Amino acid sequence: MTDKVSLPAPRDGSPGEPLLVAEGLTKHFPIMGGFPVKRRIGAVQAVDGVDLTVRAGESFGLVGESGCGKSTTGRLLTRLLEPTAGRISYRGEDITRAGRRQLAPIRSEIQMIFQDPYSSLNPRQTVGKIVSGPMEINGINPAGGREARVRELLDVVGLNPEHYNRFPHEFSGGQRQRIGVARALALEPKVIIADEPVSALDVSIQAQVVNLLGRLRREMGIAFLFIAHDLAVVRHFSQRVAVMYLGKIVEVGTREDIYGRPRHPYTHALLSAVPETHDADGTRRVGAPPGGSRGRIRLAGDVPSPVMPPSGCRFRTRCWKAQARCATEEPPLTRADGNTEGHLSACHFPEPPTVARNTEVILDPALRAAEDADGAGG
Amino acid sequence: MTAFLSVKDLFVRFSTEDGTVKAVDGLSFDLERGRTLGIVGESGSGKSVTSLSVLGLHDARSTEIRGEILLDGQELTGAPESVLEKLRGDKMAMIFQDSLTALSPYYTVGRQIAEPYRKHTGASKREARQRAVEMLEKVGIPNPSLRVDDYPHQFSGGMRQRAMIAMALVCDPELLIADEPTTALDVTVQAQILDLLKDLQQQTGSAIVLITHDLGVVANTVDELLVMYAGRAVERGSVREVLRAPQHPYTWGLLGSMPRLTSDVNEPLTPIPGTPPSLLAPPPGCPFHPRCAYTAEAGGEVCRTERPVLPPGRGAACHLSAERKRTVFNEQIKPRLG
Amino acid sequence: MLRFLARRTAGALVIILLISAITFFLFFALPSDPARMSCGKNCTADALAVIHKNLGLDQPVPVQYWHYMAGIFTGRDFSVGHCSAPCFGYSFSNQQPVWGTIVDRFPTTLSLTLGSAVVFLTVGVGFGMIAAAFQGRWPDKFFSSLSLIANSLQIYFVGIIALAVFVTGLHWMDNPAYYPITENPAKWFTGMLIPWLVLSIIFVANYTRMTRSQMVEQLSEDHVCTARAKGLGHRTVFFRYAWRGALAPIVTIFGIDLGSLFGGAIITEFTFSLHGLGRLAVDSVGQTDLPTLMAVMLISCAAIVVANIVVDAAYAFIDPRVRLA
Asked: The ABC transmembrane type-1 domain covers which part of the protein (chain C) (predicted)?
């Protein structure tokens, strides 16, 4: 249905050219308190020294668990939040401290899609008004008029252009997310920062939206910073992927690097934790994906608080390979032995470059106790 | 001989301002002790409504429940509140999705765990507290004798969910219903919790109903699987059968919609077109027919008029012939799943 | 918790200081000259100047303010005599230290407001809980309509009707009056009963509605469902889980209502000829008795601020998330 609609041809900007670059990007949210005068008593180190590059026409995936700083990173890049330190540049131009006027032309080229299709649309505006909003604000009058352009955009995202005058509550969750996408497209962006764009949607609808975004990337040449916690969705959508943990990128590389030859123990733990339908082969302990057996890695506890992250390597408190060095020396994000160009990881003791494991790592004490008891019982 | 938990022809209807919502429409399933049943479906499929009906937690004034729910031979539909109160938390217990809202912010974790234990066993305050500490330790809370006096907001998300599991298991229930127990959790914590649930089941031998929207979650956690759509069960079988050789076009759609770690990234996902139906006026015949790509093959008209029956045991509620289901899956669906 | 109280107390002191400064400057910037008031009809320019000097009105306003505030703690000397701490000045109308009058009137207002608060909290919250427990059935409809009717009533109207019916008509009780509780608790109670009920009426309606909606909301919360899933009985769930959650917002609103409670007390005192602070305030406005008015303002503000700290502490006690944050 929607695939038959012709899309405008990709615009200027050769694929692979760095579009959006962050260097040493840092955001600390101050915690105020104290008596009698409130003062800064600490900081949530939400993002701490993140380097990343989104290239023209590619999808760059940012994965990690809650509190890892991936959403904050997205907001920093669109300048919705002011960075504490670091540098953001767009097509070579430093926009870290750019004022409103300097940002104005760039704002239209970097758009954002949000997670919650229910709260990110104004319930009192019609779809037409919502989608044409960015054009009005930026004073853009496309040939043929705004309304015609909005109808075209609705068609592009797979909505009925006749629904121009309807209100958001008349649409389902997936359709609302499409409205959000149409709004983001209104200014012909070069980069879209998509913050968990499908995680609030049902599985069957999720696939519709993922396919739509994929089509926009391929056919219109729009680059994406795709922020998500679902590793399989990120793998499907992104050519390059960065894994974040407690405000830092712990590993970055191509899709094949991260999903096929990961080096950081946390990446291994994440991949091992993904529940896969392949695992339904009767034995519950070890799944057998192509490429070898998959030993479980079960970490202990939750992610520590970003207010007081562990010293040295931030993952060390949940890592089975941690040694004294990990507490004192922060591992740099570098190319480990045997890694391909551009595949960087931040670990003193990297894992072998394969997802196949013969041994299980069970750190969770309750799990270990329960399994020992099960084993002893029969 | 009926099963430990036997649900027969369950109908649940809510009267709302807009009309009657047919939330569950003729659902039947059996579950034995020590086994786990997964119920999979998207929002509005009726999976959570089913779990609340088993415990009798619906508001009796706006809800109409018909059918049989037999727990260990005892009829639960229409049972008086006093009978249900004695069973809830004791013989049957429930774990909810969002531990932040499902635990009361006003009482300590220990007290909330001890409460059902005191109520059902008549234990003293001290014994119940001791039991709460024991349970917290069992589910992996560090320093349980200190944390027992904490309030829920002082726990992290994963810890809170463990506390909720401790609360549900405190009276060694024979039936445990877990409604999206890991949906609010991070993937590494989800893996810990799912394994823990499974391990604790090995020790207690309880029956578990695991309700989720995620086919991946059920894959290595449950024994049998029930796929629900628009208030009806559309496919049933062992988890292995259903995931390896699904028979219902909706299950095909679900699997095709899910990217996985091994699928071909160059192939687009194959979503189910359209949106789930309104339960105020579900489509006649097969509820899935407006979104189904195989109605023509199944005979067209029959899908729109006649409600397909879900056979007992392994099977799917679909008008396609068994032979046709197998060939369609093997030739058209399977190659795309990777 | 102690830190929290310390912070609130410090904040309260700042607020009281601000209010005192604002009222003081407002009063003395008014066109009416207080000296002229106390000078009387046959006033000469000389006499006026003397009074000015006696009252300290010849000094700049900030200095006057300083003397006034210092006097509260140390006492002051006026030409008419020494005014010992806490000194709020001399009344223009009866030439007595204001503090004495305040001490005289305060118990009446305190009895009236506290008693009425007890009445409207128990009755209002009680009605609201009954309405919530029987959601959609006749007790709900009954109490909800009752609260709607009560909401549209006015104190002076209900007060006069109550007097006409219960005192003049049925002779059930005497005219409302204040008797010190220390002397005769029974008379204190019967004397205040009608004023309590009348002042409560406007509040009862609000608290019924609010309690009902809070309870209904709490009853639909997930944690209430969890409590039921644990096998707890209806009563336990209702009173232990839902009620506990509904309590916090009720306490908050109560803190906000304290101001209007004092406002209601003024009207009630007038209606029943009770000699309380409210009455005193209105009388001193009529007589441009600035020192008395100022003192009543300050003391009622201080009372409301202190009561708000108590309410905040109670809130923190109810909600551990506030206490431990």
From this structure: 106-311
